[in-house]
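Input structure tokens:
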């Protein structure tokens, strides 16, 4: 699925393991994520890919540049079709793509897909309070803070707050009518 003239989304493939292994073990990357990591072996990444390929409650894509090289991944997790809700997550693993609008483009495309193709009614995001860039991105795209879990994640000797964000389909559609990309 082509998102714009700089990135595409596709199903994860075995060829992505090396890139994912590299960035999932990079402290600059893992510091921005809500997960806790003690490091990953290549076999762990292969299992993660296979798990998400089979799991019907998750839909995960590789974010690839136009040369089809893996630069990150994103997904809709905990998809609950009955309630029309999913949680979105994104990881731009190649720091050369940070600050270039890739996150905005990908989240915009995935949320639009979730509302228009999957008929979901709400998308949630879970973001560390220390990840200011992600909080700004989701705010720009119309997500609202629904809760702050105080001192929820332990990182580097301190407890960090965790933001729960959400956007409903009608809010998204209204934003899309008014919003112009930068």
């Amino acid at each position: 699925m082509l998102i714009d003239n700089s990135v595409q989304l596709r199903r994860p493939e075995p060829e992505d393991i090396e890139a994912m292994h590299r960035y999932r073990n990079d402290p600059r990357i893992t510091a921005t994520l809500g997960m806790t990591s003690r490091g990953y072996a290549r076999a762990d990444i292969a299992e993660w890919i296979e798990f998400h390929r089979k799991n019907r409650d998750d839909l995960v894509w590789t974010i690839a540049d136009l040369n089809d090289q893996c630069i990150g991944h994103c997904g809709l997790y905990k998809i609950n079709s009955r309630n029309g809700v999913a949680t979105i997550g994104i990881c731009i693993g190649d720091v050369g793509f940070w600050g270039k609008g890739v996150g905005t483009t990908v989240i915009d495309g995935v949320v639009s897909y979730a509302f228009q193709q999957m008929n979901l009614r709400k998308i949630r995001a879970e973001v560390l309070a220390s990840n200011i860039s992600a909080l700004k991105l989701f705010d720009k795209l119309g997500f609202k803070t629904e809760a702050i879990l105080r001192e929820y994640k332990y990182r580097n000797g301190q407890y960090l707050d965790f933001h729960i964000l959400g956007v409903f389909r009608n809010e998204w559609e209204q934003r899309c009518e008014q919003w112009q990309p930068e």
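The mean pLDDT is 88. The first helix runs from residue 17 to 24.
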